């Protein structure tokens, strides 16, 4: 049997199309427990590769013959070895090129919907990290919101759409992933916006993103309106696009809410978080479609691969929006926080412009799951 080489894009298509896949993950048990490739119809077995060095005969009964089988490791070397051993036993298998590192970096652009007068809104889904970025397009112009560090994904997409990136926004100073926002702006001549309350320590030029700012994209007047919504950070800002979509940054997710502690100020910011979620957002139209900057679990993906839900539905279904007692809410978001993101303090320093790690160092900083939320 031959071994097939799978790309991260191949695996992403299995996720988005809700297809079956069996994954043999040969990383160490702690790495698998912390973070794995997720799909609606994925099955798994985790057996560290060093336990298989003497042969794979004993695990053959665990490997199905009626579905695609993919071997996964951290970088790809171990998965190629184990996949070849399975092929020698007559099994059809594949391996993930680049391993979990490639999965962490892959981004899938998906159309969310049409906007007024021919405009379009796209969501860029980073399945392996749970990051969500956005591009608003209208009449030859584009705005990018919460871009990750892979700038060519956005500039190439803009080129394919024959649009010019005019504006780039970060809803807040990110702590879980490295932003590509200012680098896209530098490459395209676009204006880069960052909330000034989050930018006190940055060492680069930016345009202040303030409450009530309205930026027009194209002649069709698709307004990207800024809405001050602190709580995850003191400067966190949401956007209402075309009067239909609410981009919430890391304040509100589909199945969870934002955490207030990544700058070390959970006790100070929990009140702002509650004010945003229970007052500011309650004043908005419930028909707005919430588009967050992250997702935590695969169940948050819709059938088309997007992460989006009506605000009114979140008011009804999201546990974090339905805690009447303020003391109980405060305890939930300060006393029961999940582990903090990998290298989050260093990532903040990168996003301030204070340190400039190379690409391999940036990849290592970002390895691991999304940890921006409280559930």
Question: With helices defined by DSSP (H or I, 4 residues minimum), what is the helix count?
Answer: 11
| Beta-strand residue percentage | 25-35%
Low-confidence stretches: none
Give the CA-CA distance, first to last residue. Answer: 45 Å
Helix content: 25-40%
DSSP strand tally = 20
Overall pLDDT level: 93
**CA-based shape:** globular
Strand order of the largest sheet: 6-7-8-9-10-11-12
- Judged by helices, strands and strand pairing, the structural class is alpha/beta
> What Rg is obtained from the alpha carbons, in whole angstroms?
21 Å
Largest beta-sheet details:
7 strands, mixed
Short description:
The chain is of the alpha/beta class and about 375 residues long.
Could you characterize the architecture of this molecule?
- The protein is an alpha/beta fold.
- It has helices spanning 8-16, 29-34, 77-88, 99-105, 151-160, 181-188, 266-280, 311-317, 326-335, 344-352, 359-366; strands at 3-6, 20-25, 41-46, 69-72, 93-96, 108-114, 120-126, 131-138, 141-145, 164-169, 191-194, 207-208, 214-217, 222-228, 237-241, 245-249, 257-258, 289-292, 309-310, 373-374.
- Strands 6-7-8-9-10-11-12 form a seven-stranded mixed β-sheet. Strands 13-14-15-16-18-19 form a six-stranded mixed β-sheet.
- The chain starts with a strand and ends with a strand.
């Amino acid at each position: 049997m031959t071994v097939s080489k799978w790309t991260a894009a191949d695996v992403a298509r299995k996720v988005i199309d809700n297809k079956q896949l069996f994954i043999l993950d040969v990383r160490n048990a702690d790495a698998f427990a912390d973070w794995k490739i997720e799909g609606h119809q994925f099955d798994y077995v985790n057996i560290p590769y060093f336990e298989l060095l003497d042969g794979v005969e004993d695990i053959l009964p665990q490997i199905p013959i009626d579905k695609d089988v993919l071997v996964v490791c951290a970088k790809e070397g171990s998965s190629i070895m184990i996949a070849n051993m399975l092929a020698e036993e007559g099994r059809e298998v594949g391996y993930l090129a680049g391993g979990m590192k490639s999965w962490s970096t892959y981004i899938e652009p998906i159309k969310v919907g049409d906007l007024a007068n021919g405009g379009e809104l796209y969501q860029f889904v980073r399945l392996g990290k749970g990051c969500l970025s956005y591009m608003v397009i209208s009449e030859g112009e584009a705005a990018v919101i919460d871009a990750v560090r892979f700038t060519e994904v956005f500039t190439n997409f803009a080129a394919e759409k024959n649009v010019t990136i005019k504006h780039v926004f970060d809803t807040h100073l990110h702590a879980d992933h490295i932003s590509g926002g200012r680098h896209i702006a530098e490459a395209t001549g676009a204006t880069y916006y960052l909330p000034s309350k989050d930018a006190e320590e940055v060492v680069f030029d930016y345009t202040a993103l303030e409450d009530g700012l309205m930026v027009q994209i194209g002649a069709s007047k698709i307004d990207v309106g800024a809405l001050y919504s602190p709580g995850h950070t003191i400067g966190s800002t949401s956007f209402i696009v075309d009067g239909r979509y609410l981009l919430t940054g890391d304040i509100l997710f589909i199945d969870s809410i934002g955490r207030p502690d990544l700058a070390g100020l959970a006790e100070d910011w929990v009140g702002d978080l509650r004010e945003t979620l229970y007052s500011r957002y309650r004043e908005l139209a419930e028909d707005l479609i919430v588009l967050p900057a992250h997702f935590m679990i695969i169940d948050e993906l819709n059938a088309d691969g997007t992460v989006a839900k009506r605000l009114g539905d979140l008011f009804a279904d999201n546990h974090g929006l339905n805690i009447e007692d303020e003391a109980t809410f405060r305890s939930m978001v300060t006393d029961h926080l999940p582990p903090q993101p990998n290298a989050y303090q260093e990532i903040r320093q990168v996003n301030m412009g204070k340190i400039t790690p190379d690409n391999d160092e940036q990849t290592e900083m970002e390895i691991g799951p999304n940890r921006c939320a409280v559930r």
